[in-house]
Amino acid sequence: LVVKVIVNVLTKALTAPFSLLFGSSEQDLSVVEFTPGTAALSASGAAALDKVAKALADRPALKMTVTGASDLPAEREAYLQAAVDARLQQERAKELARDGKAPEPAAAGARAEAFSAAERERLLKAVYKQTEIADKPRNFVGMAKDIPAAEMEALLKTVIPVTDTVMRQLALQRGLAVRDGLIAKGLPSDRLFIGAPKPRLAGADNAAWTPSAQLVLRNN
């Protein structure tokens, strides 16, 4: 209990500059949230990034370290779903390229929700056909059987690796997404640093998990 209290106090001490910048009534801008399983900012994360960028632009002496975090147990299913959706987006881009059309714009890590049910099933069939799956159902002559879309999607998820290394990479991508987002808003890169990715934010073990990156300010 004493250790947890100390950790909480230290965490608040590190993030206190944000409350000084924005006032105690504002949201906690020391944490930028992401869509589960992806390195795409959530709506609240994007809004927080705008406020942080403005505050840092107004205070040129401040520098910031960004540390991305992820959680394997909490984000496994979301990561798998995002990976399947990314495969569908890639397959759609290949179709458009074959037709001589420009790829449709899509946010990094976005789910393939814009597809109609029929279009999604068509793309799933194409991706499923191209993917090596050891236990893929086959007919009596050894050809892959037609199966429902939900079953194809479930089988595709079985061959997507979700390891500690993969999730650590996702955490790093989140840190980079925040840094690159701030640079795109005009902040100089020499004021922004990337911390070593963490599997979970310190002190969050007993809290509901929110995919995020931690921001820490410093004056030198």
Provide the fold topology:
Blueprint: H1 2-22, E1 31-33, H2 43-58, E2 63-68, H3 72-98, H4 117-130, H5 149-158, H6 164-184, E3 192-194, E4 212-218
Parallel strand pairs: 2-3
Antiparallel strand pairs: 1-4, 2-4
Helix pairs in contact: 3-4, 4-5
Description:
Residues 9-15 have low confidence and may be disordered. The chain has a four-stranded mixed sheet with strand order 1-4-2-3. The chain has helices spanning 2-22, 43-58, 72-98, 117-130, 149-158, 164-184, and strands at residues 31-33, 63-68, 192-194, 212-218. The two termini are 34 Å apart. It is 50% helix and 9% strand. The chain has 220 residues and is an alpha+beta fold.
* Quaternary state of the chains: single chain
- Largest sheet, if any? 4 strands, mixed
- Total strands: the figure is 4
Strand order of the largest sheet: 1-4-2-3
The helical percent reads 40-55%
Distance between the termini: 34 Å
Query: What's the total helix number?
Result: 6
How would you spell out the order of helices and strands?
Answer: HEHEHHHHEE
Short description:
The chain is α+β, with helices and mostly antiparallel strands and 220 residues long. Helices cover 50% and strands 9% of the residues. Strands 1-4-2-3 form a four-stranded mixed beta sheet.
Keywords:
four-stranded mixed sheet, 9% strand, 6 helices, 4 strands, 220 residues
